[in-house]
């Protein structure tokens, strides 16, 4: 989160509404809060890779799920591209200071290649980079803002005066704040990033809600403080430049703040930190974006190759590579402000949808005392359903304020989703009655009967695998171990299919794919060999299979 929202967006926001940008950040956070609470609940109930796509597909079915999945994928990769574009301005600060010359676009592409590689290496490698950078950025920005507010020349009242909110009259000023809040909404996209990799998170029922809510509180406080301190020290008109006969916002607003506080050397240090921070943000964005394609492939809405994970690193390498390629195109061809509007517009729609999903799932498939229903969140959003309806109404208002570009972007992504579903997903994904259809039926006919969601039948496979002889069990173990290219005692989808064909079992690949998904309960793209055999074999005809070690919460 703490990348472009701190280092790039403030100048653009100030160019839109004046020095009162802190209020726009605060308003955006208030609209995000209901969605953060709803997503915390949904993630605790469905801790699998894919995040919002998974919830949407579960509630509304494959068609709406395809549109939402591709929209989320686009939003996350565009925000990551936005970071790699934004840091180019700070790169110029560094090169100007040392009198060097670097091609900013080449550097951006180099960072993109690096973060693609780190994502393929796995989440632990990403964490090793993210944690220290995040800690440093929080501490440094707090000190910078404190120093700025203590400057003798700081005008502490400027961000509070009525002149800080452009427009004639209170109504126009309020609409200006709302429009700017919709624009900076992209800064909060990362607050729920972690749910996209929920299948790889330890103790998701506890850690996901905690991580989401703590992230929202910290980032909101930092955004508001940075916006206030910047505008108290640097007037809004200073954060513009003339480009192609047009007055546009600068992309290095925090460099202006740093130089006002400590001169060129502090500006240089902040520029280096900005480059590292936004590269780190792009790293996390690519991590989350790639999991949407991975999850959609698991539901047969995208080709199977996107769900296959790397045998050595156990990450969805093709989904990561394709996401990186599209990011490269966005960096080369899209303007910064348009990217921000496109991402914000679609993300507001998704947050509204997540609030609606909580309402639908609680009304239809929430687990009852008699054991019926499958929706059983370990974290529950407070003040239900008022929190959700507040988030929906606020989101719709911000969408109205976004203007035409956000609407066109949403329509373009929706069209892509429609083409993808009818061109591929419809012929490969299974059909079922959704909770949304159940919810609609209850409203139209409150006395209709309940239903259960359909599941993929694997009973035939269980019967075939059950109670093998010792010789057959040993043959299966040998085939699975031989297929395990990564030597982790795990099998990816392609490794499982290969092993089953070697064993001579008469199944097509698409049937083995369904069986694999049934065994891969947490949706991380791998199955543990011992656990799989214990689950499907039961007792040996001549000996017992040892109970597998319990899942310690690492998602494997």
Explain how this protein is built.
The protein is an all-alpha fold and 556 residues long. The protein has 2 domains: 4-420, Amino acid/polyamine transporter I, CATH 1.20.1740; 459-544, Orthogonal Bundle (Recoverin, domain 1), CATH 1.10.238. Helices cover 66% and strands 3% of the residues. The protein has 20 helices and 6 strands. The protein has helices spanning 4-7, 9-17, 21-45, 52-60, 62-98, 104-121, 123-149, 170-184, 204-233, 253-298, 317-333, 336-364, 386-402, 404-428, 435-444, 459-465, 470-483, 493-502, 509-519, 529-537, and strands at residues 240-243, 246-249, 490-491, 527-528, 539-540, 543-544. Strands 1-2 form a two-stranded antiparallel sheet. β5 and β6 (543-544) form a beta hairpin. The chain starts with a helix and ends in a 12-residue tail after the last strand. Residues 448-456 and 543-556 have low confidence and may be disordered.
Topology readout:
Blueprint lengths: L3 H4 L1 H9 L3 H25 L6 H9 L1 H37 L5 H18 L1 H27 L20 H15 L19 H30 L6 E4 L2 E4 L3 H46 L18 H17 L2 H29 L21 H17 L1 H25 L6 H10 L14 H7 L4 H14 L6 E2 L1 H10 L6 H11 L7 E2 H9 L1 E2 L2 E2 L12
Antiparallel strand pairs: 1-2, 3-4, 5-6
Helix pairs in contact: 2-8, 3-8, 3-9, 3-12, 3-13, 4-5, 4-12, 5-6, 5-10, 5-11, 5-12, 5-14, 6-7, 6-10, 6-11, 7-9, 7-10, 8-13, 10-11, 12-13, 12-14, 12-15, 17-18, 17-20, 18-19
